[in-house]
Write a sequence for this structure.
């Protein structure tokens, strides 16, 4: 055996010991330490850092997700990426690892292993879908969008205890009529219900509490469990559609969110009454 082949052999053994992802990560990742933590304690260390739950991570800024097709060693491989307005199409995708292998094992988060958010770049046409996984690991879901434009597709999932939000675009052909973001309001009417934002967000970089109430004709309406909680909230930043991970309170329509920067955000609150899911969207200005 020559010195060169010995070294290659040694590298291969190291890669096998520490895992392909961690080995590649030490050279590729722009966030040092992240993958090392993952290799030591699958899930816990990386998740704490990611969500700012760990004691050490408290002072760190909330990471922004959903801006990239590839992050932390996983890639969203989306096909097709064009569609026609009003015509149903099958949105199909895979999550692939650094070696191009299709990821098959996902954690259950909010009762599902994959959450897919589709929204036009002007933040109209919001859809929250749950694709089905086939035996080869491919995910697919039928989608229909009514208007032409560029749509952002967010795959929100967790692997080995670590949350990921990867995103890519789907172009829907036709004449695009973009809409300006609605001005901030206290209440939104949806499906005969009035949804009010009773506690608003504070300043950028600090944890904000967002509270909502649902009424019909002025009387409170009880919300049912939907995906294991009273409600779900997705917040997107105007401009780049940065995706905010918002932590729900299991028993009420209250959420904790840390908006990373000043600016305008669109909040998409989803909740269920009488077996039906409703989506109420709010514009939220965050000050410095
Ligand atoms: Cu979901």
């Amino acid at each position: 055996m020559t010195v060169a082949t010995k070294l290659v052999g040694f590298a291969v053994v190291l890669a096998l010991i520490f895992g392909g992802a961690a080995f590649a990560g030490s050279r590729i990742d722009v966030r040092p330490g992240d993958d090392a933590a993952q290799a030591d304690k699958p899930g816990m260390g990386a998740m704490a850092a990611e969500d700012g739950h760990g004691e050490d991570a408290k002072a760190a800024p909330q990471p922004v997700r959903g801006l990239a097709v590839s992050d932390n060693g996983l890639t969203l491989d989306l096909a097709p990426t064009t569609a026609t307005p009003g015509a149903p199409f099958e949105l199909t995708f895979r999550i692939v690892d650094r070696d191009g292998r299709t990821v098959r094992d996902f954690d259950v988060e909010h009762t599902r292993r994959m959450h897919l958010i589709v929204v036009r770049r002007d933040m109209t046409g919001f859809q929250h879908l749950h694709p089905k996984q086939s035996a080869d690991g491919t995910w697919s879901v039928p989608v229909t969008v009514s208007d032409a434009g560029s749509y952002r597709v967010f795959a929100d999932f967790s692997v080995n205890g670590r949350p990921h939000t990867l995103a890519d675009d789907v172009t829907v052909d036709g004449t695009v009529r973009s809409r300006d973001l609605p001005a901030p309001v206290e209440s939104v009417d949806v499906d005969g219900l009035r949804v009010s934002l009773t506690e608003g967000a504070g300043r950028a970089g600090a944890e904000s509490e967002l509270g909502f109430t649902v009424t019909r004709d002025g009387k409170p309406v009880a919300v049912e469990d939907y995906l294991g909680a009273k409600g779900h909230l997705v917040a997107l930043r105007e401009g780049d559609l940065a995706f905010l991970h918002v932590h729900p309170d299991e028993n009420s329509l209250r959420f904790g969110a840390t908006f990373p920067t000043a600016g305008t955000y669109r909040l998409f609150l989803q909740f269920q009454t009488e077996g039906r899911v409703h989506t109420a969207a709010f514009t939220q200005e965050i000050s410095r």
